[in-house]
Amino acid sequence: MDFITGIFGSLNYEVIFQLTFVSLILISGPVIIFLLAVRGGDM
Predict the structure, then answer these.
(1) 5 in Cβ contact with 12 (< 8 Å)
(2) Dist CA 40 CA 24 (whole Å)
(3) CA 35, CA 42: separation in Å to the nearest integer?
(4) Alpha carbons 33 and 27: distance in angstroms, whole number
């Protein structure tokens, strides 16, 4: 049990959230371009 709490205690949640939001932003760019191409340019 101490091993599991040690792993979760040492995680830096701020870094995890920052990486998650940066990856979402990077993924959303191509997704928007793809949706624009599929819909013929009208949003």
Answers:
(1) no
(2) 24
(3) 9
(4) 11
